[in-house]
Protein backbone atom coordinates (compact mmCIF):
# COMPACT_ATOMS: atom_id res chain seq x y z
CA UNK A 1 0.00 0.00 0.00
CA UNK A 2 1.36 3.40 -0.94
CA UNK A 3 1.22 6.44 1.26
CA UNK A 4 -1.08 9.17 -0.05
CA UNK A 5 0.66 12.12 -1.62
CA UNK A 6 0.74 15.31 0.40
CA UNK A 7 -0.27 18.50 -1.32
CA UNK A 8 0.42 21.91 0.06
CA UNK A 9 -2.01 22.69 2.91
CA UNK A 10 -3.41 26.16 3.38
CA UNK A 11 -6.27 27.27 5.63
CA UNK A 12 -8.75 24.82 7.11
CA UNK A 13 -11.73 25.89 5.01
CA UNK A 14 -15.40 25.12 5.58
CA UNK A 15 -15.46 22.20 3.12
CA UNK A 16 -12.49 20.63 4.91
CA UNK A 17 -14.24 20.96 8.25
CA UNK A 18 -17.38 19.34 6.84
CA UNK A 19 -15.45 16.41 5.37
CA UNK A 20 -13.41 15.85 8.51
CA UNK A 21 -16.56 15.92 10.64
CA UNK A 22 -18.15 13.46 8.21
CA UNK A 23 -15.30 11.00 8.78
CA UNK A 24 -15.53 11.59 12.53
CA UNK A 25 -19.29 10.98 12.52
CA UNK A 26 -18.80 7.82 10.53
CA UNK A 27 -16.11 6.75 12.96
CA UNK A 28 -18.45 7.46 15.82
CA UNK A 29 -21.12 5.21 14.31
CA UNK A 30 -18.71 2.43 13.41
CA UNK A 31 -16.48 2.38 16.46
CA UNK A 32 -18.62 3.83 19.28
CA UNK A 33 -22.01 2.19 18.76
CA UNK A 34 -23.58 3.09 22.12
CA UNK A 35 -27.10 4.58 21.80
CA UNK A 36 -28.24 7.82 23.41
CA UNK A 37 -29.88 6.00 26.34
CA UNK A 38 -26.53 4.40 27.12
CA UNK A 39 -24.70 7.72 27.36
CA UNK A 40 -24.91 8.03 31.14
CA UNK A 41 -23.61 4.50 31.61
CA UNK A 42 -20.86 5.18 29.09
CA UNK A 43 -19.79 8.31 30.99
CA UNK A 44 -19.58 6.34 34.23
CA UNK A 45 -17.56 3.57 32.58
CA UNK A 46 -15.19 6.09 31.00
CA UNK A 47 -14.69 7.74 34.39
CA UNK A 48 -13.87 4.43 36.05
CA UNK A 49 -11.52 3.46 33.22
CA UNK A 50 -9.79 6.84 33.44
CA UNK A 51 -9.15 6.36 37.17
CA UNK A 52 -7.89 2.82 36.55
CA UNK A 53 -5.59 3.85 33.70
CA UNK A 54 -4.12 6.79 35.59
CA UNK A 55 -3.49 4.77 38.75
CA UNK A 56 -1.84 1.94 36.82
CA UNK A 57 0.17 4.41 34.75
CA UNK A 58 1.54 6.21 37.81
CA UNK A 59 2.55 2.96 39.49
CA UNK A 60 4.25 1.81 36.31
CA UNK A 61 5.94 5.18 35.92
CA UNK A 62 7.37 5.24 39.44
CA UNK A 63 9.00 1.86 38.84
CA UNK A 64 10.05 2.18 35.20
CA UNK A 65 10.12 5.78 33.92
CA UNK A 66 12.36 7.35 36.57
CA UNK A 67 16.15 7.52 36.86
CA UNK A 68 16.04 4.38 39.00
CA UNK A 69 14.02 2.64 36.30
CA UNK A 70 16.67 3.56 33.76
CA UNK A 71 19.44 2.27 36.02
CA UNK A 72 17.70 -1.10 36.30
CA UNK A 73 17.01 -1.35 32.56
CA UNK A 74 20.45 -0.17 31.46
CA UNK A 75 22.14 -2.96 33.42
CA UNK A 76 21.18 -5.28 30.56
CA UNK A 77 22.10 -2.93 27.69
CA UNK A 78 24.66 -4.22 25.18
CA UNK A 79 27.36 -1.53 24.93
CA UNK A 80 28.47 -2.85 21.55
CA UNK A 81 25.11 -1.81 20.08
CA UNK A 82 26.26 1.83 20.09
CA UNK A 83 29.87 1.16 19.10
CA UNK A 84 29.23 2.29 15.55
CA UNK A 85 30.52 4.87 13.10
CA UNK A 86 27.77 6.57 11.11
CA UNK A 87 29.95 8.93 9.09
CA UNK A 88 28.31 9.66 5.76
CA UNK A 89 24.81 9.13 7.12
CA UNK A 90 22.36 11.99 7.61
CA UNK A 91 19.97 12.43 10.52
CA UNK A 92 17.14 14.96 10.76
CA UNK A 93 16.07 15.76 14.32
CA UNK A 94 13.16 18.07 15.05
CA UNK A 95 13.34 19.99 18.31
CA UNK A 96 17.11 19.45 18.45
CA UNK A 97 18.07 22.62 20.30
CA UNK A 98 17.24 21.45 23.84
CA UNK A 99 16.38 18.51 26.06
CA UNK A 100 16.49 14.98 24.73
CA UNK A 101 16.56 16.21 21.11
CA UNK A 102 19.84 18.00 21.70
CA UNK A 103 21.20 15.09 23.73
CA UNK A 104 20.43 12.72 20.85
CA UNK A 105 22.04 15.11 18.36
CA UNK A 106 25.24 15.26 20.44
CA UNK A 107 25.56 11.48 20.69
CA UNK A 108 24.88 10.87 17.00
CA UNK A 109 27.27 13.67 16.03
CA UNK A 110 29.97 12.03 18.17
CA UNK A 111 29.53 8.93 16.02
CA UNK A 112 30.12 10.94 12.84
CA UNK A 113 26.57 11.51 11.66
CA UNK A 114 25.52 14.58 9.70
CA UNK A 115 22.85 16.34 11.75
CA UNK A 116 20.01 18.45 10.37
CA UNK A 117 18.58 20.35 13.33
CA UNK A 118 14.98 21.44 12.73
CA UNK A 119 14.14 24.09 15.31
CA UNK A 120 11.62 26.88 15.82
CA UNK A 121 13.97 29.54 17.24
CA UNK A 122 17.05 30.46 15.20
CA UNK A 123 19.11 31.95 18.04
CA UNK A 124 18.55 28.99 20.35
CA UNK A 125 19.29 26.59 17.51
CA UNK A 126 22.56 28.31 16.61
CA UNK A 127 23.63 28.31 20.25
CA UNK A 128 22.83 24.59 20.50
CA UNK A 129 24.68 23.93 17.24
CA UNK A 130 27.84 25.53 18.64
CA UNK A 131 27.56 23.31 21.71
CA UNK A 132 27.04 20.17 19.62
CA UNK A 133 30.05 20.99 17.43
CA UNK A 134 32.21 21.69 20.48
CA UNK A 135 31.25 18.49 22.31
CA UNK A 136 31.37 16.19 19.27
CA UNK A 137 34.14 17.71 17.17
CA UNK A 138 31.77 17.25 14.23
CA UNK A 139 31.29 20.26 11.93
CA UNK A 140 28.54 18.64 9.85
CA UNK A 141 25.72 20.20 11.84
CA UNK A 142 23.09 22.21 9.96
CA UNK A 143 20.28 24.39 11.30
CA UNK A 144 16.84 24.65 9.67
CA UNK A 145 14.31 27.06 11.17
CA UNK A 146 10.74 25.74 11.11
CA UNK A 147 7.61 25.96 13.25
CA UNK A 148 6.10 22.46 13.19
CA UNK A 149 2.62 23.84 13.93
CA UNK A 150 2.47 25.60 10.54
CA UNK A 151 1.65 22.73 8.23
CA UNK A 152 2.02 24.76 5.03
CA UNK A 153 5.56 25.68 6.03
CA UNK A 154 6.33 22.10 7.06
CA UNK A 155 5.26 20.97 3.59
CA UNK A 156 7.36 23.67 1.91
CA UNK A 157 10.39 22.85 4.05
CA UNK A 158 10.18 19.15 3.16
CA UNK A 159 9.83 19.92 -0.54
CA UNK A 160 12.85 22.23 -0.46
CA UNK A 161 14.88 19.70 1.52
CA UNK A 162 14.23 17.04 -1.12
CA UNK A 163 15.45 19.40 -3.83
CA UNK A 164 18.65 20.20 -1.95
CA UNK A 165 19.51 16.74 -0.57
CA UNK A 166 19.66 13.44 -2.39
CA UNK A 167 19.20 11.21 0.65
CA UNK A 168 18.11 11.17 4.27
CA UNK A 169 18.94 8.12 6.35
CA UNK A 170 17.07 8.76 9.59
CA UNK A 171 14.21 11.06 10.59
CA UNK A 172 13.71 11.63 14.31
CA UNK A 173 10.36 13.28 15.10
CA UNK A 174 11.12 14.78 18.49
CA UNK A 175 9.58 18.28 18.49
CA UNK A 176 6.48 18.68 20.59
CA UNK A 177 4.51 21.04 22.79
CA UNK A 178 1.98 21.09 25.60
CA UNK A 179 0.28 24.48 25.38
CA UNK A 180 -2.58 25.67 27.57
CA UNK A 181 -5.08 27.21 27.45
CA UNK A 182 -6.40 26.05 24.08
CA UNK A 183 -4.99 27.98 21.10
CA UNK A 184 -5.75 27.80 17.38
CA UNK A 185 -3.20 28.29 14.59
CA UNK A 186 -3.62 30.52 11.53
CA UNK A 187 -4.70 27.38 9.66
CA UNK A 188 -7.57 26.76 12.06
CA UNK A 189 -5.92 23.87 13.91
CA UNK A 190 -5.64 23.32 17.66
CA UNK A 191 -2.00 24.14 18.41
CA UNK A 192 -0.92 20.96 20.21
CA UNK A 193 -2.52 18.73 17.58
CA UNK A 194 -0.98 20.80 14.78
CA UNK A 195 2.51 20.50 16.26
CA UNK A 196 2.56 17.03 17.75
CA UNK A 197 0.44 15.15 15.26
CA UNK A 198 -0.26 16.90 11.97
CA UNK A 199 3.19 18.49 11.64
CA UNK A 200 4.77 15.09 12.27
CA UNK A 201 2.44 13.49 9.73
CA UNK A 202 3.19 16.07 7.02
CA UNK A 203 6.96 16.04 7.53
CA UNK A 204 7.23 12.26 7.59
CA UNK A 205 4.93 11.67 4.64
CA UNK A 206 6.65 14.31 2.53
CA UNK A 207 10.12 12.91 3.26
CA UNK A 208 9.25 9.29 2.42
CA UNK A 209 10.67 9.54 -1.10
CA UNK A 210 14.06 10.84 0.04
CA UNK A 211 14.20 8.34 2.90
CA UNK A 212 13.60 5.50 0.45
CA UNK A 213 16.90 6.32 -1.26
CA UNK A 214 18.79 5.24 1.86
CA UNK A 215 20.00 1.65 2.32
CA UNK A 216 18.51 1.39 5.82
CA UNK A 217 15.98 4.22 6.24
CA UNK A 218 14.51 4.73 9.69
CA UNK A 219 11.83 6.96 11.19
CA UNK A 220 11.76 7.34 14.96
CA UNK A 221 8.96 9.25 16.67
CA UNK A 222 9.34 10.36 20.27
CA UNK A 223 6.05 9.68 22.01
CA UNK A 224 5.34 9.60 25.74
CA UNK A 225 4.24 7.08 28.31
CA UNK A 226 1.30 9.39 28.93
CA UNK A 227 -0.34 7.95 25.84
CA UNK A 228 -0.94 4.75 27.83
CA UNK A 229 -3.91 6.43 29.54
CA UNK A 230 -5.53 7.39 26.23
CA UNK A 231 -7.51 5.53 23.60
CA UNK A 232 -7.54 7.08 20.14
CA UNK A 233 -10.50 9.49 20.01
CA UNK A 234 -11.47 9.92 16.37
CA UNK A 235 -14.43 12.15 17.13
CA UNK A 236 -12.52 15.04 18.74
CA UNK A 237 -9.06 15.42 17.20
CA UNK A 238 -9.16 19.19 17.71
CA UNK A 239 -10.11 19.03 21.41
CA UNK A 240 -13.31 21.01 20.89
CA UNK A 241 -15.57 19.00 23.20
CA UNK A 242 -15.68 19.28 26.96
CA UNK A 243 -13.19 20.95 29.30
CA UNK A 244 -9.73 21.52 27.82
CA UNK A 245 -6.95 19.67 29.66
CA UNK A 246 -3.58 20.23 27.96
CA UNK A 247 -2.00 17.23 29.70
CA UNK A 248 -4.68 14.90 28.34
CA UNK A 249 -4.56 16.56 24.91
CA UNK A 250 -0.81 15.95 24.83
CA UNK A 251 -1.32 12.32 25.87
CA UNK A 252 -3.93 11.92 23.11
CA UNK A 253 -1.49 13.39 20.57
CA UNK A 254 1.11 10.89 21.72
CA UNK A 255 -1.38 8.04 21.24
CA UNK A 256 -1.98 9.42 17.76
CA UNK A 257 1.77 9.21 17.08
CA UNK A 258 1.73 5.53 18.06
CA UNK A 259 -1.15 4.88 15.67
CA UNK A 260 0.60 6.79 12.86
CA UNK A 261 3.73 4.69 13.36
CA UNK A 262 1.76 1.45 13.24
CA UNK A 263 0.00 2.54 10.05
CA UNK A 264 3.18 3.77 8.35
CA UNK A 265 4.84 0.44 9.08
CA UNK A 266 2.03 -1.32 7.20
CA UNK A 267 2.16 1.12 4.28
CA UNK A 268 5.93 1.34 3.73
CA UNK A 269 7.67 -1.94 4.48
CA UNK A 270 11.02 -0.73 3.11
CA UNK A 271 11.39 1.83 5.93
CA UNK A 272 11.85 0.88 9.59
CA UNK A 273 9.39 2.85 11.71
CA UNK A 274 9.50 2.95 15.49
CA UNK A 275 7.99 5.01 18.29
CA UNK A 276 9.40 5.33 21.78
CA UNK A 277 8.97 6.61 25.33
CA UNK A 278 12.04 8.39 26.75
CA UNK A 279 10.92 8.03 30.35
CA UNK A 280 10.39 10.95 32.69
CA UNK A 281 13.32 13.23 31.90
CA UNK A 282 14.44 16.58 33.28
CA UNK A 283 14.05 18.89 30.29
CA UNK A 284 13.10 22.55 29.78
CA UNK A 285 9.81 21.43 28.24
CA UNK A 286 8.83 19.43 31.33
CA UNK A 287 9.78 22.27 33.67
CA UNK A 288 7.72 24.77 31.69
CA UNK A 289 4.66 22.70 30.75
CA UNK A 290 4.32 20.59 33.91
CA UNK A 291 5.68 22.66 36.81
CA UNK A 292 3.80 20.78 39.54
CA UNK A 293 4.91 17.40 38.21
CA UNK A 294 8.46 18.71 37.97
CA UNK A 295 8.49 19.98 41.56
CA UNK A 296 7.11 16.67 42.82
CA UNK A 297 9.35 14.40 40.73
CA UNK A 298 12.52 16.38 39.97
CA UNK A 299 14.72 14.27 42.25
CA UNK A 300 13.66 11.15 40.35
CA UNK A 301 13.77 12.44 36.77
CA UNK A 302 16.17 11.04 34.19
CA UNK A 303 18.87 13.16 32.62
CA UNK A 304 18.32 14.27 29.01
CA UNK A 305 21.06 11.83 27.99
CA UNK A 306 19.23 8.93 29.64
CA UNK A 307 16.00 10.00 27.98
CA UNK A 308 17.74 10.14 24.60
CA UNK A 309 19.46 6.76 24.90
CA UNK A 310 16.75 4.72 23.19
CA UNK A 311 16.40 7.35 20.45
CA UNK A 312 20.10 6.98 19.63
CA UNK A 313 19.87 3.19 19.85
CA UNK A 314 16.92 3.13 17.44
CA UNK A 315 18.71 5.53 15.08
CA UNK A 316 22.11 3.85 14.76
CA UNK A 317 22.17 0.26 16.04
CA UNK A 318 21.79 -2.91 14.02
CA UNK A 319 19.94 -4.44 16.97
CA UNK A 320 17.09 -1.95 16.61
CA UNK A 321 16.22 -2.92 13.06
CA UNK A 322 16.23 -6.60 13.95
CA UNK A 323 12.83 -5.87 15.48
CA UNK A 324 9.73 -5.63 13.27
CA UNK A 325 8.76 -2.17 12.08
CA UNK A 326 6.00 -0.27 13.86
CA UNK A 327 6.74 -1.20 17.47
CA UNK A 328 6.76 0.88 20.66
CA UNK A 329 10.05 0.97 22.60
CA UNK A 330 11.11 1.80 26.13
CA UNK A 331 14.71 1.46 27.31
CA UNK A 332 15.86 -0.37 24.16
CA UNK A 333 13.06 -2.93 24.53
CA UNK A 334 9.91 -3.40 22.46
CA UNK A 335 7.00 -3.15 24.91
CA UNK A 336 3.23 -3.07 24.71
CA UNK A 337 1.63 0.25 23.78
CA UNK A 338 -1.29 -0.58 26.07
CA UNK A 339 -1.83 -1.05 29.80
CA UNK A 340 -3.48 -4.35 30.83
CA UNK A 341 -7.28 -4.32 30.53
CA UNK A 342 -7.28 -0.59 29.78
CA UNK A 343 -9.54 -0.67 26.69
CA UNK A 344 -7.16 1.44 24.61
CA UNK A 345 -6.64 -0.91 21.68
CA UNK A 346 -7.90 0.02 18.22
CA UNK A 347 -10.98 -1.57 16.78
CA UNK A 348 -10.76 -2.81 13.17
CA UNK A 349 -10.57 0.12 10.78
CA UNK A 350 -9.89 2.83 13.35
CA UNK A 351 -6.25 3.28 12.35
CA UNK A 352 -7.15 3.62 8.69
CA UNK A 353 -9.95 6.08 9.47
CA UNK A 354 -7.53 8.19 11.52
CA UNK A 355 -5.01 8.37 8.68
CA UNK A 356 -7.81 9.26 6.26
CA UNK A 357 -8.85 12.10 8.55
CA UNK A 358 -5.29 13.47 8.68
CA UNK A 359 -5.12 13.33 4.90
CA UNK A 360 -8.38 15.26 4.61
CA UNK A 361 -7.03 17.95 6.92
CA UNK A 362 -3.98 18.58 4.76
CA UNK A 363 -5.50 18.03 1.32
CA UNK A 364 -8.36 20.53 1.60
CA UNK A 365 -7.89 24.21 0.82
CA UNK A 366 -4.80 23.35 -1.23
CA UNK A 367 -2.97 25.86 -3.36
CA UNK A 368 -2.61 24.11 -6.71
TrEMBL record:
Transmembrane segments: none annotated. InterPro entries: NAD(P)-bd_dom_sf, SDR_fam, SDR_member_12. This is Dehydrogenase/reductase SDR family member 12. It comes from Pleurodeles waltl (Iberian ribbed newt).
Amino acid sequence: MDLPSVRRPACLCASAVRDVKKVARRAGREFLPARAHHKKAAIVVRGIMSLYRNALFFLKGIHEFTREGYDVASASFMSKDLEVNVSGKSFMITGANSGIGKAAAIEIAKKGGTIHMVCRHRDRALEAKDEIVKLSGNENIFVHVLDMSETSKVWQFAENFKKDHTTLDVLINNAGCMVHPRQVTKEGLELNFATNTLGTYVLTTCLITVLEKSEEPRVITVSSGGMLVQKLELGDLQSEKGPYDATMVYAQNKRQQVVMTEQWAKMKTNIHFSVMHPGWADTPAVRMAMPEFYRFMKAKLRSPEQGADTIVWLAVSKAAISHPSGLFFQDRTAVSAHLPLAWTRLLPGEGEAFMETLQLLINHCTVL
